[in-house]
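Thread: quick sanity check before group meeting

JM: Hey all, I'm pulling together slides for Thursday and realized we never actually wrote out the predicted structure for the chain we discussed last week. Dropping the sequence here so it's in one place. If anyone has concerns about the input, flag it before I start.
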Amino acid sequence: MHSRTTLKDMMRIGIDMGGTKIEGIALAENGEELLRKRIDTPRNDYLGTVTAISGIVDELEAKTNQKGTVGIGIPGAISPQTGLVKNANSTWIIGRNFEHDLTTALGREVRLANDANCLAVSESVDGAGAGAKVVFAIILGTGCGGGIAIDQKVHSGPLSIAGEWGHITLGWMSPEEYPGEECYCGKRGCLETFVSGTGFENAYERQTGNRISGHKIIKLIEKGDDTAEKVMRTYENRLARGIATLANFLDPDVFVLGGGMSNISRIYQNIPALVVDWIFGNEFTTPIRPAKHGDSSGVRGAAWLW
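JM (edit): ok, ran it. Output follows.
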């Protein structure tokens, strides 16, 4: 009798398509990491992005000598009405039938989900939100995403916009902040423009006239630079207002942070006390934790879409 390979027995491939990098991971059926690959995102190049993702999958399969299911986390959502990408800060994929084009390129069905939803699921299954009923995942990267996992399953809503925290306005704006910068979505004052890594770099540039990376700003803070410290404190205040807004309407069991800004350890010490100043009732005890799987959590969550 011949044994038959089932989906359960197959290797799982996850792809995390970010604004600056695309990462792929191959997981064994038991969740063990077999191989990973990371490349720069071909920005503003749609066909290049499809080709890059296809190339990562091909390389992971060739080097492991296994075929795999493919799940892909994207910085946006698939419209339930049209099947096309919407709400993506990687704007070159907006309005494209990304799922169809990737399916064609790879010669098999793929599953796509919002990258923050992938993070939420990954961390609720075996990460910083394990055991919690409601996990809100925040991505603080090139853009700013949010995702909700309830009982270890994505809650995306009928419009596929549940948790899109980056596109509500910054709460309790000061006169200096109002009405906020224009966001790629066409609105002004979106949280994304304030608390993403890009927003952090923009704030430093406004203060100094000098554009440098977030990593370099953090290095300046560690050296005692007053301007960089001021920018960081403003950032923490704004992030606290954003988290207070979330807690006021969802009150999740845990907040899990991913993306480049989530690697700044001081925010976990400073943010909880700042949230108290803005939250309804002035009580805040909800854990705010870095993603257990770090920058790999989104790509692991994508792999678990199957």
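AS: nice. Residues 1-5 have pLDDT under 50 and may be disordered. DSSP finds nine helices and twelve strands in the chain.
JM: adding both to the slides.
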